[in-house]
Amino acid sequence: MLLIPSTSPASLLEMVAHLSLPKALLRTGKPDPSFLLRFPLLLGPEEIPRPEKKDDVVLVSPDYGWIRWAKGKGFRAVWANFEGERCPEIHPLHDLELRQPEDLKRPWKFELPDLEEILGILYDHGVPQNVVEHSAAVAAVGFFLAERLREKGVPVDPLLVHRGGLLHDLDKIWSLKEGNNHGERAAEILEKLGYPKLGEIAKRHVLRPERLPRSWEEKLVFLADKLVEGKEVVGIRRRLSALLRRYPEFCEEIRAGASFISSLQNEVLSLLGMSEPELLAELKMCEKGLLEILGEGGRK
């Protein structure tokens, strides 16, 4: 069942007016997803039960207030962001972003887990709270960078960056205990769960020459991870110093990777037209909002 609020702009309603709305399809369950049900003209929000599966009900709206409402109900949420606005949330709630009106007519694929699913994956695999908080900070910083780089014409998917940031350290504790290559186990897990792109991001966020990032999504999670120590944005120098103290056995790899990290940051700064202090100041503002979301402990 696809929903579009009747309070949406007339332009969006006109775009979907040609789609059929047969009354026989106004039912719970999973009907043919070839129509948009305008609500609350046909159904009030209180009449729509929480679906057994997220894909059973999908809401489409340009208004992020409706996106928040849909996720609170357990629905899929598609953000019709035809104006190219920045997401009002530091941790995006939408499952898919449409950038052009023509996207309404194309098949949609929900290729990424939502925040609720991601928390389940993290805790199911024994990821401790401090690593979850670090991952959330990395995700927020990566998303911040991705949105602004996209505005400069860089072909990057901010939502993929965000979800990749949340899951990049999925195997952190396991790899420390087992002494195996960090990122590879996470990639295997995520691929088995049906998220190969997230697995590739996890595999390529480490300082190993053979596994350096290639796509912009991989690069931004990699860079964000090198800007964040714990859940605090500290910059590359302080982050690498902390890594050297914590993992002296990997000092050669860390030092060898410093030039690549610096080069990547310089590329990002050039594209954004910012200096390093300006970027860190912006990211500190981002961090402040993040701390409010995370709180000072407990599962969020």
Order the strands across the largest sheet as they lie in space.
2-1-3-4-5
Q: List SSEs in N-to-C order.
A: EHEEHEEHHHHHHHEEHHH
CATH class of the largest domain: Mainly Alpha
Overall radius of gyration: 21 Å
Please give the number of β-strands: 7
**How many DSSP helices?**
12
Give the strand content. Answer: 5-15%
**Which blocks of ≥5 consecutive residues have pLDDT under 50?**
18-47, 296-300
The geometry reads as: globular
Determine the N-to-C terminus distance.
29 Å
The domain count comes to 2
Largest pleated sheet: 5 strands, parallel
CATH architectural type of the largest domain: Orthogonal Bundle
How would you characterize this protein structure?
The protein is α/β, with parallel strands linked by helices. It folds into 2 domains: 2-105, no CATH class; 115-294, Hypothetical protein af1432, CATH 1.10.3210. It is built from 12 helices and 7 strands. Strands 2-1-3-4-5 form a 5-stranded parallel beta sheet, with helices on one face. It has a two-stranded antiparallel sheet with strand order 6-7. Strand 3 (58-61), helix 2 (64-73) and strand 4 form a beta-alpha-beta unit. It is globular. The model is unreliable at 18-47 and 296-300 (pLDDT under 50).
